[in-house]
Write a structure and sequence with these properties.
Elements (H helix, E strand, L loop, with lengths): L2 E7 L2 H13 L5 E6 L5 H13 L7 E5 L5 H10 L6 E3 L4 H10 L6 H14 L42 E8 L5 H11 L3 E5 L1 H4 L2 H9 L6 E5 L1 H8 L8 E6 L2 H9 L6 E6 L7 E2 L5 E2 L1 H12 L3 E4 L10 H12 L1
Parallel strand pairs: 1-2, 1-3, 3-4, 5-8, 5-9, 6-7, 6-8, 9-12
Antiparallel strand pairs: 10-11
Helix pairs in contact: 2-3, 4-5, 9-10, 11-12
Length: about 325
């Protein structure tokens, strides 16, 4: 039998699992997995692995996730590289789960069940009155920020726009491109291109593929080493580009700024906890090197916008740095 994992941010997975049990009855080999504030992607990965180990056939698993490019999806995607029998469907809803329960009687593989449940998930979206339902789904705009960037090769020396790339947001986020960036920040800042600036990720084909897949409709996503973003900053062919830059660490951001990337403000969104770091709030953990790096960035005149999502209130970066400095000793 195909095993089923329901994965979500917060308690959505356990809630919809409870609803499914109420409406359709108990089902074998179905496990909800949740990702909460204060947990790291690594914590979630362990939860997923433990849940899979409880299934009858750990190599034949259908995952249903709440959000494409969110942390649950990203962790499952990374794990799936070693499990060709796994399949993932996002946009989890109750009709999808009901169809999956029934489809397990008709199909033997997770991939076959995944294909069978997509129509039910879409058909579960209805409106009242019926006239509110659009006749056709709107096609994505060429780019969220207005006119599309030119496509194809552009000869060196070509000047587009004023010849200077525009940075609509520069963000430090150890998770890089995930749901909060792909949805909330992209809608708010309207970039034409999302650029992940990381030496490590630039040489990791699996993570690069994951990031490229996570780009919102109409927005290009690229992964480049720090040296490349410094080149891009000086290339007049990017004058028509509105870029959202993502840095994995403040050290990478500092290297880029010192190299000539004209960033005036850094959005500090998420920094994962690791050995030698202290947690200063629910999403930020800093080590001594981080404190020193932020001090140097401040001396360069960089301002800080400490927010996970655009609707959050800005936090005081000076207070955060001093808290970390005191706890680190």
């Amino acid at each position: 039998m195909v095993g089923i994992i329901l994965a979500s941010h917060g308690d959505f997975a356990t809630g919809i699992y409870s609803s499914a049990c109420m409406v359709f009855g108990e089902a074998d080999d179905v496990i909800p997995v949740t990702f909460h504030n204060g947990e790291t992607p690594d914590d979630l990965r362990v939860k997923i692995q433990e849940a899979v180990a409880k299934l009858e056939d750990p190599e034949n698993v259908l995952f249903m996730c709440d959000l494409f490019a969110g942390t649950p999806y990203n962790q499952i995607f990374l794990l799936s590289a070693d499990h060709p029998g796994w399949a993932v469907v996002t946009g989890m809803n109750l009709p999808m789960i009901a169809e999956a329960y029934g489809a397990r009687d008709d199909y033997e593989t997770a991939g076959e069940v995944a294909t069978a449940i997509v129509s039910a998930a879409r058909e579960g979206i209805v409106t009242h009155p019926e006239s509110l339902m659009p006749e056709d789904a709107a096609a994505p705009a060429p780019a969220a920020g207005g006119a599309a960037e030119p496509t194809g090769a552009i000869p060196p020396g070509t000047v587009l726009g004023d010849g200077h790339i525009k940075y609509v947001l520069a963000r430090i986020d150890s998770r890089l491109l995930h749901g909060q960036v792909a949805t909330a920040w992209s809608k708010t800042t309207q970039p034409t291109r999302i650029i992940v600036c990381s030496d490590g990720v630039a040489h990791d084909d699996l993570r690069k593929t994951l990031i490229e897949q996570a780009a919102p409709p109409g927005i290009k996503a690229n992964v480049v080493p720090i040296s490349k973003i410094i080149e891009v900053a000086k290339d007049p062919r990017f004058g028509a580009t509105k870029a959202l830059l993502l840095f994995e660490t403040p050290q990478d951001a500092l290297r880029a700024i010192k190299g000539g990337v004209e960033i005036k403000e850094l959005n500090v969104g998420s920094m994962a906890h690791s050995l030698g770091k202290v947690a200063v709030n629910k999403v930020l953990s800093l080590g001594k090197e981080d404190v020193e790096t932020f001090d140097e960035l401040k001396k360069l005149g960089i301002k800080f916008d400490v927010r996970k999502v655009p609707t959050d209130s800005r936090e005081d970066m000076d207070a955060i740095i001093e808290k970390a400095r005191a706890e680190l000793g």
